[in-house]
Every structure is written in structure tokens, then in C-alpha cells.
Specification:
Number of strands: 11
Distance between the termini: 86 Å
Strand order of the largest sheet: 8-7-10-11
Number of domains: 2
Order of helices and strands: HEEEEEEEEEEE
CATH architecture of the largest domain: Sandwich
Structural class: mainly beta
Strand content: 35-45%
Shape: elongated
Amino acid sequence: MKKIATTGFFACLSMLSFSQQNTVSSGGEAIGSGGTVSYSVGQIDYTNSQGTNGSINQGVQQPYEFYELGIKEAQFIDVLLFPNPTNEFIILQFENFTSDLSYSLYDLNGKIVVEGIVEASETQIDMRTFAKGQYNLTIRNSTNNIQSIKIVKN
């Protein structure tokens, strides 16, 4: 009996010394056809294993860092859009008109409703056949999107 009690005491002691020591905010178990993975969010303890081919930190939430190699300056154009909200037409007036501008009008599902090329400093878009709701107008030049404007059709 004394042997069983001593074995039980050391078994409990070893479980306590190797159990998780920190509080985590969340966690769970992901089960799939390929196996099972236990995870926790907020874990701060980890072990580092190193070998000749690299190293791995077990138990750490690994950060991903993205770096942009170049800085593009934001391009905006002076455009006046009226009337907004509208019933019939939208008029775009450009302060500094350039010939490489185009536009796309999207509904809220992301579907292109109408596209066109800006051919003059004042461009008119017919919205009479469109359903009432919100639309997004994107103006772009030949290389990238420049400006996006929300339009409301009554």
C-alpha cells in the first residue's frame, strides 16, 4: 500500500511540474481526416528546437511580417460628381483632364454595371435603367485605380 501511495504521489507531482503554467485566452482541438491538432490562443511558453536544417519554435504564435519594397505616392484627381443622390444621370467634371482615364460602376455585389472611357473634361453616366440602391464608381488611369466614389440611386 505504501508503494502504491508513493507511486501515486510522484505521478501527481510529475504531472503538476510538466503541466501548463500560464493562462490562455482561448483554445480548442481541430479534428480532420488528416489527424488532430490541439491549439491555444495566448500561449506564452515555448520550446526551441534547432538542427542543421533550421529551427522551430513550438508553442508560439508565429508572426508574419510583410514589407513593401517601394512606396507609391497616392494619386488623386480633382473630380466633381453631381447630383448625388441621383435619379437619372451622374455628371463627372474633371479639373485636370487627361486622356488615359476610364471608369467602372459596380453594384453592391461587385458586379460591373457599366464601364466607359473618359473622353472629355465633363462626362455623363446614364443611371435611369439601374435599380435603386448604392453603387461604387471607380476612376482609374492606365496603370492603377485612382479614386472610388459611392453613388446613391433614388
